[in-house]
Amino acid sequence: MSGLDLKRLGPCLLAIAIDAMGFGLVYPMFSAIFSDPHTGLLPAGAAASWRNFYLGLGYAAYPFCMFFGSSLMGELSDVYGRRRILLLCVAGLSASYFMMAWGVSGCSLWLLLAGRALSGLMAGCQGIAQAAIADVSTAENKAYNMSIMSVAFSAGVVVGPALGGIASDRGLSPLFGYATPFVLVGALSAGCALWLWRRYRDAGAPADPNRRIDLLLPLRVIREAVGHRAVAFLSLVFFLMQIGYGLYLQTITQLLQQRFHYGSLQLGLFSGLIGVCFVFGLRVVVRLLLRVWRVTRIAACGLLVAGIGELLSALFPHQAALWPLGMLVGCFDMVAYTTMFTAFSDAVSEDRQGWALGVTGSVMAIAWVVTGFLNNLLPLFGDTGLLLLGGACFLLSFAAMLGYARSADARHASTGDLAQCS
């Protein structure tokens, strides 16, 4: 079995890692930046409500732009080729991180938010890089290539938060600061773009250079999803799940900061540990559970355990408890996330797999936009209230998914009985 052509597809793997790295890096960094009165982004005496508003805006800008950018870039890559659009996305990511670095160092709030929005618009690079690798994969090496992509994504999820925490801590080096992680990721993205330009070439000609680009594709995808009963139901479950985890990720960093005075280093290490648990859930727990349950049951299990972990974090906000509970939430959120994608895939025919993937991306983007603005409720409900709300969303999604799993099991049993009769 031939392996992956790293000379040609190595930059695609790096693009996947950078995309995952940036997502995990920004949340603890933004929490530290907007709570620090000495950054100059907001007046030193700015009220907590205004800091929470702009923090929520920073959180929401990325998924809002990703909602349109991901599908748009995917369509453009089908028309103009993977190489051109992947180069555009990675170069755009580089520009977005340098904008955020400049925004922090130059005390420009709007430049920081504009960079965050641009990174969301360019977020299609991961899907395009995956498609580029799939384009050259054969039946013999496709599974191997997919596993390598999973490793690249996992590495980004773990390295991103840790890099942000370490490179922003002035206690480790006077050269470090809040802008440093953004500069490093921007430089890494620029290097990836250069590597792509020199090494990567498309596997074939563009599909249709005259094809019309549908700018409103995400809205059309959501409208079509409403008309598909199973996909509409799974979309509701997935939406609640994303709200639950989004509230956990946003609120837990602020809780650790306010109650235990965590700086960017500790927040980055905490988020990096959650990334490690993502990998453990993906590579170990899912595989073990697949031996005894169907994917719908595993998804329900993941939603239940993650929800319980978030509720316990709200009820027992002690430093010694929050770290293991964070590991639990991260691990089983990834268990649910992975198997939810399989449930979406199983709910549609072979010719609608791409459409179902588009639905999940659109639903996730909408949920994270909503979650960003829910951050404004922090002064009203406190960190405990938001964590309880997030845990309740997880448990609601669990109840709905359990009902779906029982229905799927009943259909499977009925199909099996019919097969035996025939």
Question: What are its keywords?
Answer:
422 residues; mainly alpha; Growth Hormone, Chain: A; 0% strand
SSE topology:
Elements: H1 6-35, H2 48-80, H3 82-105, H4 109-121, H5 125-136, H6 142-167, H7 180-199, H8 217-226, H9 229-260, H10 264-289, H11 295-315, H12 319-346, H13 353-374, H14 378-421
Helix pairs in contact: 1-2, 1-5, 1-6, 1-7, 1-9, 1-10, 2-3, 2-4, 2-13, 3-4, 3-5, 3-7, 6-10, 8-13, 9-11, 9-12, 9-13, 9-14, 10-12, 11-12, 11-14
Q: How many separate structural domains?
A: 2
Topology as a string of helices (H) and strands (E) = HHHHHHHHHHHHHH
Radius of gyration: 21 Å
CATH C-level class of the largest domain: Mainly Alpha
Count of β-strands: 0
Uncertain spans, ≥5 residues at pLDDT below 50?
A: 417-422
Largest sheet features? none
CATH superfamily of the largest domain: MFS general substrate transporter like domains
Give the structural class: mainly alpha
* Shape type: globular
Strand-residue fraction? under 5%
- Can you tell me the CATH architecture of the largest domain? Up-down Bundle
Mean pLDDT: 84
Q: Helix content range of the residues, please? A: over 70%
- CATH fold-level topology of the largest domain: Growth Hormone, Chain: A
Describe the structure in your own words.
The structure is a single chain. This protein is an all-alpha fold and 422 residues long. It has 2 domains: 1-213, Growth Hormone, Chain: A (Up-down Bundle), CATH 1.20.1250.20; 216-414, Growth Hormone, Chain: A (Up-down Bundle), CATH 1.20.1250. Helices cover 81% and strands 0% of the residues. It is built from 14 helices and no strands. It has helices at 6-35, 48-80, 82-105, 109-121, 125-136, 142-167, 180-199, 217-226, 229-260, 264-289, 295-315, 319-346, 353-374, 378-421. Mean pLDDT is 84; it is low at 417-422.
